[in-house]
C-alpha cells in the first residue's frame, strides 16, 4: 500500500483576519473571498503529489540506503542547497517592499552563517550540552531556531553549507566534490534554475506564490523522513555522522511556513494582488521540486551514481 503524507492543515482564517474584520478594516465579503482562496491554495499546493507522496524520501526514511546511494543523495542535495543562495539573493533584490526585503534577507543571511538572535537574551546563556545533544539539537553557539539575524553574530561554521559539509565528510566526501553546478544531475539543475526563475522572480506575484509553496513544502514532512533515515544509518552503520544540518532544518521550517501565511494575509488584500499568478508561481515551483526528488528516485532505481 502506498503511504501518503498528511498535508499541513493550517490554511484557515486566522485570528489576525478575524480581528481586522471586527475593526472594520475588512468586509465580510473580502474575508469570504480570502477563505475561498485559501481553499484553492490548499488544493493546488498542499495536495500536490510531491507533498503528499514523495516516493524517494519515504524510501529514504527506512535507513536502508547504501553508502553509494547516501553519497549520491548528499552530493545532489548539496548542489540544491548551495545554488539556493542565488535564488535567495534574487528574492531579496527583487522584493517589492522594504519589509519583504528584510524577510528575504533573514533567510539568506542565516543560510550564510548569521545566527538568529532572540532580543533580550544574551548570547552564550544556554545549558551545557553533550556533543551528542549538539548534533541532535544544534550547537547553541552556532544555531538558533528563533529570533532575528538583526544584531546576530556571523560565524563561518554556522553557514548551512558547512553543516552539510560536516555530514558529507563522515561519508568520505570533501568540499571540492560538493555544491557546484558541475556536480548536479539534470533534474537537480532544473530545480535550481526554476528556483531562480520563480522564487527569485522580479514579478512579485510569481515570487510570492513560489515562496509560499516552497516554505509549505519544507514544512510538510520531508525533513522528518530524511532525519529518520539518517538517524537509523547513524545508529546502525555510521556513528560518526553529524546530522545537525538535517535536525535543525526539521525543527525550523514550520516557523517559516507560518511566516509566509502572515505575509500572504498582507499581500492578498492589496489592490494589485494577482491570484492567478500567485497560483502559477506555486504550482510551477512544486512541479520543479517533484523533478528533483523524482530524479533522485530514478537514479536509485537505475543505479545511477556520480
Instruction: Give the integer mean of the pLDDT values.
Output: 88
What's the helix-strand series?
HHHHHHHHHHHHH
Q: CATH superfamily, please?
A: Heme oxygenase-like
Pick out the low-confidence regions: 1-8
Shape: globular
Oligomeric nature of the chains: single chain
What is the end-to-end distance?
31 Å
Structural class comes to mainly alpha
DSSP helix fraction:
55-70%
Assign the CATH architecture: Up-down Bundle
SSE arrangement:
Layout: H1 15-22, H2 28-46, H3 49-52, H4 55-60, H5 67-94, H6 98-112, H7 131-137, H8 160-169, H9 186-199, H10 204-218, H11 222-236, H12 244-268, H13 275-302
Structural overview:
With 306 residues, the chain is mainly alpha-helical. The chain has one domain (27-302): Heme Oxygenase, Chain A (Up-down Bundle), CATH 1.20.910.10. The protein is built from 13 helices and no strands. Helix 5 (67-94) packs parallel to helix 9 (186-199).
Amino acid at each position: 500500500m502506498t503511504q501518503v503524507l498528511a498535508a499541513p492543515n493550517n490554511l484557515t482564517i486566522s485570528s489576525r483576519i478575524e480581528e481586522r474584520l471586527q475593526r472594520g478594516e475588512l468586509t465580510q465579503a473580502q474575508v469570504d473571498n480570502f477563505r475561498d482562496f485559501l481553499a484553492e491554495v490548499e488544493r493546488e499546493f498542499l495536495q500536490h503529489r510531491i507533498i503528499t507522496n514523495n516516493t524517494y524520501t519515504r524510501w529514504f526514511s527506512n535507513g536502508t540506503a547504501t553508502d553509494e546511494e547516501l553519497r549520491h543523495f548528499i552530493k545532489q542535495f548539496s548542489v540544491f542547497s548551495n545554488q539556493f543562495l542565488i535564488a535567495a539573493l534574487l528574492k531579496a533584490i527583487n522584493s517589492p517592499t522594504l519589509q519583504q526585503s528584510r524577510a528575504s534577507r533573514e533567510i539568506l543571511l542565516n543560510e550564510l552563517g548569521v545566527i538568529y538572535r532572540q532580543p533580550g537574551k544574551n548570547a552564550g546563556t544556554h545549558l551545557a550540552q553533550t556533543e551528542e545533544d549538539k548534533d541532535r539539537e544544534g550547537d547553541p553557539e552556532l544555531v538558533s531556531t528563533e529570533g532575528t539575524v538583526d544584531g546576530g553574530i556571523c560565524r563561518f561554521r554556522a553557514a548551512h553549507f558547512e553543516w552539510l559539509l560536516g555530514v558529507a565528510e563522515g561519508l568520505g566526501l570533501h568540499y571540492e566534490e560538493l555544491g557546484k553546478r558541475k556536480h548536479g544531475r539534470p533534474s537537480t539543475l532544473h530545480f535550481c534554475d526554476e528556483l531562480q526563475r520563480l522564487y527569485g522572480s522580479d514579478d512579485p506575484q510569481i515570487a510570492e506564490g513560489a515562496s509560499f509553496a516552497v516554505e509549505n513544502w519544507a514544512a510538510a514532512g520531508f525533513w522528518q523522513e530524511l532525519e529518520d533515515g539518517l538517524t537509523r544509518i547513524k545508529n546502525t552503520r555510521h556513528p560518526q555522522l553529524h546530522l545537525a544540518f538535517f535536525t535543525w532544518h526539521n525543527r525550523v521550517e514550520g516557523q517559516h511556513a507560518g511566516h509566509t501565511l502572515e505575509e500572504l494575509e498582507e499581500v492578498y488584500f492589496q489592490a494589485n494582488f494577482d491570484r492567478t499568478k500567485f497560483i502559477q508561481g506555486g504550482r510551477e515551483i512544486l512541479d520543479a521540486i517533484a523533478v528533483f526528488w523524482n530524479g533522485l528516485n530514478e537514479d536509485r532505481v537505475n543505479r545511477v551514481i556520480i
